[in-house]
Amino acid sequence: MRTISLKRKSIPSPNYSSRGGAAVRLIVIHTAEGARTIEELGNFFKNPSSGVSSHVGADDKAGTVGEYVKRGSKAWTAANANPVAVQIELCAFAKWSTAEWNKHPAMLENCARWIAEEAKAFGIPITKLSSSQAQGSGRGVCTHNDLGSWGGGHWDPGGGFPMDKVLNMARSGSGAGGSSDYMNPPQWLWDWLRWYLTTDRDPKKKPKGAPDKIPQWAWDYCAEVEKIGKRYGTTSGERDWMKWLAGGKQGPRPDVPDTIPDRWWVDNDKLALK
């Protein structure tokens, strides 16, 4: 199944250098403290005399980030941490309260989606790091503030930044291109699909782990599962797959989708109980 990537608007900065062989282990969140748009931020980074840069920037334009330095190179924004970090500048201010941050849902989602993409690219867990972990050898996500004097001594993105919310979005998939991370979907998605697609949808039996408001990416996933189900119905693909599964997976795998629809597993379980 496909994952829709962020649109990356290229505004190249000359302010970058080699990582010198260092492996990226940190995904770092900053605030721009002035620029209100990714274009304004990009114009600042384009100036060689500014002497600074970041890999990307995010504003309130949904699904789009500005890309200033390619992830393989070292951006100049966090002092000694630069060689091991990939970094985003949010067009916001560290003084913002959590309430103010929440008035910018597109920016937060852009940040979450970017985190998910970078985590996948570098094999970094979407884990919130402490200051000691970030400044030590930890692998995960942190703020500029977590880097302390080693990272330049800044306090952005501020105490009001909803870090846990953004990381949950990144993990759940709403921060992964508007759809679930199909390579590692959350368990509640499968439970909800089973309830939605194979039962009478009794609200009292709705899985406890499913959110009250199902995000759009989950509905998109459901639509794809239903589409696959119509193509590989019980009279063709599903039946062949069940026979192959029951036979110990001997012989060539039937012409079925790479991701087996949850309904098939339910049907197979029912068959096994007869």
Molecular structure report:
- The protein folds into two domains: 7-172, Lysozyme-like, CATH 3.40.80; 187-273, no CATH class.
- 35% of the residues lie in helices and 11% in strands.
- Residues 174-183 have low confidence and may be disordered.
- The strands form two sheets. A six-stranded mixed sheet has the order 1-5-4-7-3-8, sandwiched between helices. Strands 2-6 form a two-stranded antiparallel ribbon.
- The protein is of the alpha/beta class.
- It has helices at residues 38-46, 98-101, 105-122, 131-135, 163-172, 187-198, 216-231, 237-246, 262-273; strands at residues 7-10, 16-17, 26-31, 56-58, 64-67, 74-75, 85-90, 140-143.
- The protein has nine helices and eight strands.
- It is elongated.
- α3 crosses α5 (163-172).
List the helices and strands and how they pair.
Elements: E1 7-10, E2 16-17, E3 26-31, H1 38-46, E4 56-58, E5 64-67, E6 74-75, E7 85-90, H2 98-101, H3 105-122, H4 131-135, E8 140-143, H5 163-172, H6 187-198, H7 216-231, H8 237-246, H9 262-273
Parallel strand pairs: 1-5, 3-7, 3-8, 4-7
Antiparallel strand pairs: 2-6, 4-5
Helix pairs in contact: 3-5
The main pleated sheet reads as: 6 strands, mixed
Helix fraction bin:
25-40%
According to DSSP, the number of beta strands is 8
Spatially, the strands of the biggest sheet line up as: 1-5-4-7-3-8
CATH class of the largest domain, named Alpha Beta
Task: Offer a concise description of the structure.
By secondary structure, the chain is α/β, with parallel strands linked by helices. It has nine helices and eight strands.
